[in-house]
């Protein structure tokens, strides 16, 4: 990397491209979350269940994000691992009104954390306790406790409750993620 | 050295192919850059190109490699580069069949397919359809329907063609898209219209009425697309072919009107369809042929080619019509396009007179070396037809064929020449000697093992019957010295045949066989030892049974019997008589082989190798209790209808004959929607001597269902004359009235009812299996000593020709005609028919029927069989 580029990076002038992986159970709102991040004119109005995955791009600060929005259907969860290897961060979306399947969420999360491509890396993980507007919604603290997030010590993580329909809570979360990834890149270079 | 050579070659090629030296592992390694965070489109496109190149060169990836590279490829969806994206689509299509979890890209592709970027959409649809399975299709159904009626013609075409491909996988789902396809057929774009018609037809092709409606609608409107019109013509032609009504069928007029269409393609298609229709009369043919004649003089080579090819195909069926074009065809002989010239000449050969043969052959010889194998085969076929037509010209033709044999050529080409020579030999005894000589010469230098083996077999069969059998021995023994094991083995068998048939050569053959016993190959040694020990016994009977006549059992049957035998541990030796016999191909099967290909280009899947009917039934019957212990099935008769086909209950019968029993299988069909039949059985009144062992009823018979009931009978012991008889038959059952829509009976109570069936005959033919004897004469001679002979004379007053008499006798006795005696030479008033077969229980039968034509046909029938009551039975049943 040339001296100028290094300098530019340091100042954050040039846009860095990073990949993030968006995972979570089906119907937790992953595609809706990603849709919110996109600029006004690119958003789609009706959102259908994702089959497989879809790639979306959005900007935050001066990071250019490429989000791999994975399908959360039971049948396709095994396919997440193909994309662990070269991502810079993970966005884990949880339906906070779905108390019943919280155990399933925990199971999937544990699998993810134990995966060889994830467990040894200091990947930032952002949790969205989505659907906070719903009546039965659990608070983000309860979800963090329920999933045992306090046991994750080798990775930075953050949980924020969100409502992807209105966009509430999303900005806060993604700003944290941006900061984490930028720190990570800077520390590497 | 080799690398040096390759370098040199590359130099010669100039710039050459940059992909020439790439390797799979390197490319897979390179494909890892797909995983990088920021994609370099140019680099990735090049790697994908290499990958596609490899796949198209036949390089295979295993599942893991394919899956890995597939998932790496999915990451390229983040790039917005148009070229790269389109390469990704191609990559997906290539890998969709090998990689796992390909559905991962479904959402990405649906996004592209419905997106704004037109350049992505068509390709995305095609890729999407290649990764979708039947369960996933529901999810994308909505998008497919939209795409079919899309305004963009490329998108619409892609969706239609993809739907067509998916009808194989999920016909039910695609059927629901009929309305969209209907709409697409009104499109202004030629391709969309064509593809829409294709899809519509495929959806409806199983439903005759729907197809007729489709045609009726489309013939009234004018289709814009010439491709669609061509398709329509093909559909109509296929329908006409299937329909039994005459050509007054209104749609024939449509085809005829297409002869005046403004597009040449449509005109040709219409002419082709008319000419190929089976029932076209000469009046209807005339305009079509004159169109083709016009095309023969066209400046466009494709049109000339198409016209000549079509004329060539129908030269046999409509010689008169084609003869009208002879002048135009003569002009085409000198055409600069060799393919056209070949076809023109072969067409002339098919229609030409005997006098022109020599001239035409000379013409062909002048350019035969310049045309491709495929056309050489066409020439050979023409020569075969010619040889059958003009037997006197065999010398010219044979010389020409042998010259062709000496040229370079592929297996198919050589095989067709050898086939032709063999046909000529079989058909024309005069040509035999020279034909065999040519074949001998050919195997001296033949690189095709299968052909050499066939020719050796033929030499073994035909050689001993020639005037000078000894001259062939040298050719055959040369093979033993020079060739590979399978040819050597065939040569040994051929020599043994000479030894068995020509006593004066026996001594020499024994010497040669003794030498072959030192061979390095097991099979060759085994055969040599086997034959030499049989030949040393000097027993005519042994010769006939073990050298001249080959094994008559059906091979799959033998395999199964042996497997069963090895599984059951018994001390009894294996009985070859228990194996079902090989049935000679029936005449219509043989005819089918010669039938040319159908009109629509779509060919059905390859048929599985034919299994004899007995095999099929044996499997079904063995599942039924009580039938298994009867032993192997001996013969299953043809289907006999016991009712008219439109009656309330439709019953057909198949007679399965065993060694001492006969099983009658009744296929019953209930055609009444408001009745449920229970306990369906056929009550028989067996003629004297037959013993009814058991009846297996069919428990339930719903509307429109075919089910089976069986009756097991024992043949009369020791009383063969009464083995032939007529049984009265009554269908008995319990009727329960039921709701026609649901099929559920109204009440539990039913009532007994019966239905009289036509009488059922157990004939002689049912109990005889056809077996072909290669050397009928020898078998007849041996039978003279060991068998009983019965003779009788009959007058068959109802027959007017020998042909008719022969056909009837063969059918009645159920025996196999030997030595091609089922064909009566023209213009003869006497004929000898030689027949052979096996009676149930494995008793051989040989029959000689001398026929004479004089006020009806007089027949002297001689039967030889080891069992005198069987011979008696046969003579007594004729008449």
Automatic annotation (TrEMBL), chain A:
Acetylation recorded as keyword: no
GO terms, molecular function: GTP binding; GTPase activity; metal ion binding
Residues where Mg(2+) binds: 31, 50
Topology class, membrane: Peripheral membrane protein
Positions annotated to bind GTP: 24-31, 72, 130-133
Keyword Membrane: yes
Keyword annotations of the record: Cell membrane, Cell projection, Cilium biogenesis/degradation, Cytoplasm, Cytoskeleton, GTP-binding, Lipoprotein, Magnesium, Membrane, Metal-binding, Myristate, Nucleotide-binding
Gene Ontology CC annotations of this record: axoneme; ciliary membrane
CDD domains listed in its UniProt record: Arl6
Subcellular location: Cell projection, Cilium membrane; Cytoplasm, Cytoskeleton, Cilium axoneme; Cytoplasm, Cytoskeleton, Cilium basal body
GO biological process terms, semicolon-separated: cell projection organization; establishment of localization in cell; system development; vesicle-mediated transport
Cited InterPro entries: Arl6, P-loop_NTPase, Small_GTP-bd, Small_GTPase_ARF, Small_GTPase_ARF/SAR
Family listed: Belongs to the small GTPase superfamily. Arf family.
NCBIfam families, alphabetized: small_GTP
Protein name: ADP-ribosylation factor-like protein 6
From TrEMBL, chain B:
GO terms under biological process: endoplasmic reticulum to Golgi vesicle-mediated transport; intra-Golgi vesicle-mediated transport; intracellular protein transport; organelle transport along microtubule; protein secretion
Keyword Calcium in annotation: no
Domain Coatomer subunit gamma C-terminal span(s) in chain numbering: 765-878
Domain Clathrin/coatomer adaptor adaptin-like N-terminal as annotated: residue spans: 23-538
Subcellular location: Cytoplasm; Golgi apparatus membrane; Cytoplasmic vesicle, COPI-coated vesicle membrane; Endoplasmic reticulum
Alphabetical UniProt keywords: Cytoplasm, Cytoplasmic vesicle, Endoplasmic reticulum, ER-Golgi transport, Golgi apparatus, Membrane, Protein transport, Repeat, Transport
Region (Disordered): 569-612
Domain of life: Eukaryota
Limits of the Coatomer gamma subunit appendage Ig-like subdomain domain: 616-763
Recorded topology in the membrane: Peripheral membrane protein
GO cellular component: COPI vesicle coat; endoplasmic reticulum; endoplasmic reticulum-Golgi intermediate compartment; Golgi membrane
Pfam families in alphabetical order: Adaptin_N, Coatomer_g_Cpla, COP-gamma_platf
GO molecular function: structural molecule activity
Residue ranges, compositional bias (Basic and acidic residues): 587-597
Subunit relationships: Oligomeric complex.
Role played: The coatomer is a cytosolic protein complex that binds to dilysine motifs and reversibly associates with Golgi non-clathrin-coated vesicles, which further mediate biosynthetic protein transport from the ER, via the Golgi up to the trans Golgi network. Coatomer complex is required for budding from Golgi membranes, and is essential for the retrograde Golgi-to-ER transport of dilysine-tagged proteins.
Membership in a protein family: Belongs to the COPG family.
Protein name, entry field: Coatomer subunit gamma
């Amino acid at each position: 990397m040339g001296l100028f580029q290094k300098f530019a990076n340091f100042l954050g002038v040039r846009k860095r491209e990073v990949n993030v992986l968006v995972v979570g159970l089906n119907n937790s709102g992953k595609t809706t979350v990603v849709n919110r991040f996109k600029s006004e004119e690119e958003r789609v109005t009706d959102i259908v269940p994702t089959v497989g995955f879809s790639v979306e791009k959005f900007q935050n600060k001066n990071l250019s994000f490429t989000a791999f929005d994975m399908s959360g259907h039971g049948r396709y969860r095994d396919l997440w691992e193909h994309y662990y290897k070269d991502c810079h961060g993970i966005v884990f979306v949880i339906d906070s009104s779905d108390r019943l399947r919280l155990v399933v969420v925990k199971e999937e999360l544990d699998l993810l954390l134990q995966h060889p491509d994830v467990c040894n890396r200091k990947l930032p993980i952002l949790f969205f306790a989505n659907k906070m507007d719903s009546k039965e919604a659990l608070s983000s603290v309860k979800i963090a406790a329920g999933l045992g997030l306090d046991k994750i010590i080798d990775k930075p993580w953050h949980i924020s409750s969100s409502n992807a329909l209105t966009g509430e809570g999303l900005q806060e979360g993604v700003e944290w993620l941006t900061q984490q990834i930028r720190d990570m890149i800077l520390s590497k270079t | 050295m080799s690398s040096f050579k390759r370098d040199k070659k590359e130099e010669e090629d100039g710039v050459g192919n940059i992909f020439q030296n790439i390797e799979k592992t390197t490319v897979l390694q390179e494909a890892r850059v797909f995983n990088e965070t920021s994609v370099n489109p140019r680099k990735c496109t090049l790697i994908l190109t290499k990958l596609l190149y490899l796949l198209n060169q036949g390089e295979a990836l295993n599942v893991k490699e394919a899956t890995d590279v597939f998932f790496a490829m999915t990451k390229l969806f983040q790039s917005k580069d148009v070229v790269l994206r389109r390469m990704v689509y191609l990559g997906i299509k290539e890998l969709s069949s090998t990689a796992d979890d390909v559905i991962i890209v479904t959402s990405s592709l649906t996004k592209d397919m419905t997106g704004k970027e037109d350049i992505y959409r068509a390709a995305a649809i095609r890729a999407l359809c290649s990764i979708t399975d039947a369960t996933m299709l529901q999810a994308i159904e909505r998008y497919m329907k939209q795409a079919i009626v899309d305004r963009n013609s490329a998108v619409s075409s892609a969706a239609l063609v993809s739907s067509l491909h998916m009808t194989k996988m999920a016909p039910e789902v695609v059927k629901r898209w009929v309305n969209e396809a209907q709409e697409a057929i009104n499109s202004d774009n030629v391709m969309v219209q064509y593809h829409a018609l294709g899809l519509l037809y495929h959806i409806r092709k199983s439903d005759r009425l729907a197809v007729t409606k489709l045609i009726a609608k489309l013939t009234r409107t004018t289709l814009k697309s010439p491709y669609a019109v061509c398709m329509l013509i093909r559909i109509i032609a296929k329908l006409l072919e299937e329909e039994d009504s005459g050509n007054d069928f209104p749609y024939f007029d449509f085809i005829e009107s297409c002869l005046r269409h403004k597009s040449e393609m449509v005109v040709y298609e219409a002419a082709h369809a008319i000419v190929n229709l089976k029932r076209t009369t000469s009046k209807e043919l005339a305009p079509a042929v004159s169109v083709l004649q016009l095309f023969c003089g066209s400046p466009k080579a494709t049109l000339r080619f198409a016209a000549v090819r079509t004329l060539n195909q129908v030269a046999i069926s409509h010689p008169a019509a084609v003869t009208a074009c002879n002048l135009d065809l003569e002009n085409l002989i000198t055409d600069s396009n060799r393919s056209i010239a070949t076809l023109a000449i072969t067409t002339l050969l098919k229609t030409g007179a005997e006098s022109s043969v020599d001239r035409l052959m000379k013409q062909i010889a002048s350019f035969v070396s310049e045309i491709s194998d495929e056309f050489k085969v066409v020439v050979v076929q023409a020569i075969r037809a010619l040889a059958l037509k003009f037997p006197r010209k065999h010398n010219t033709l044979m010389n020409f064929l042998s010259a062709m044999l000496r040229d370079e050529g592929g297996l198919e080409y050589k095989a067709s020449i050898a086939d032709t020579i063999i046909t000529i030999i079989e058909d024309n005894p005069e040509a035999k000697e020279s034909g065999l000589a040519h074949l001998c010469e050919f195997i001296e230098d033949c690189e095709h093992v299968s052909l050499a083996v066939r020719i050796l077999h033929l030499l073994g069969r035909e050689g001993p019957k020639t005037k000078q059998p000894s001259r062939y021995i040298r050719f055959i023994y040369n093979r033993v010295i020079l060739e590979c094991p399978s040819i050597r083995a065939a040569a040994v068998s051929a020599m043994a045949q000479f030894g068995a048939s020509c006593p004066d050569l026996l001594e020499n053959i024994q010497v040669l066989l003794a030498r072959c016993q030192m061979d390095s190959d097991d099979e060759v040694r085994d055969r040599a030892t086997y034959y030499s020990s049989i030949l040393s016994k000097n027993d005519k009977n042994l010769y006939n049974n073990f050298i001249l006549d080959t094994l008559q059992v059906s091979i799959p049957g033998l395999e199964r019997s042996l497997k069963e035998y090895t599984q059951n541990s018994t001390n009894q030796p294996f009985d070859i008589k228990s194996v079902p016999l090989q049935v000679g191909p029936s005449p219509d099967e043989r005819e089918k082989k010669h039938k040319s290909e159908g009109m629509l280009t779509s060919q059905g899947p390859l048929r599985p190798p034919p299994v004899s009917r007995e095999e099929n039934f044996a499997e079904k019957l063995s599942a039924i209790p009580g039938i298994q212990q009867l032993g192997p099935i001996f013969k299953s008769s043809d289907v006999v209808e016991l009712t008219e086909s439109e009656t309330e209950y439709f019953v057909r019968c198949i007679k399965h004959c065993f060694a001492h029993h006969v099983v009658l299988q009744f296929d019953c069909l209930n055609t009444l929607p408001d009745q449920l039949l229970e306990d369906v059985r056929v009550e028989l009144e067996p003629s004297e001597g037959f013993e009814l062992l058991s009846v297996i009823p069919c428990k339930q018979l719903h509307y429109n269902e075919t089910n089976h009931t069986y009756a097991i009978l024992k043949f009369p012991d020791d009383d063969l004359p009464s083995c032939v008889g007529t049984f009265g038959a009554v269908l008995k059952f319990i009727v329960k009235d039921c709701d026609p829509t649901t099929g559920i009976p109204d009440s539990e109570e039913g009532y007994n009812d019966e239905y009289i069936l036509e009488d059922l005959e157990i004939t002689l033919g049912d109990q005889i299996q056809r077996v072909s004897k290669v050397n009928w004469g020898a078998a007849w001679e041996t039978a003279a000593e060991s068998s009983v002979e019965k003779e009788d004379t009959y007058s068959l007053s109802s027959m007017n020709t020998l042909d008719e008499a022969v056909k009837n006798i063969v059918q009645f006795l159920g025996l196999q005609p030997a030595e091609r005696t089922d064909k009566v030479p023209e213009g003869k008033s006497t004929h000898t028919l030689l027949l052979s077969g096996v009676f149930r229980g494995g008793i051989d039968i040989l029959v000689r029927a001398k026929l004479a034509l004089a006020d009806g046909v007089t027949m002297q029938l001689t039967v030889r069989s080891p069992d005198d009551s069987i011979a008696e039975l046969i003579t007594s049943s004729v008449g």
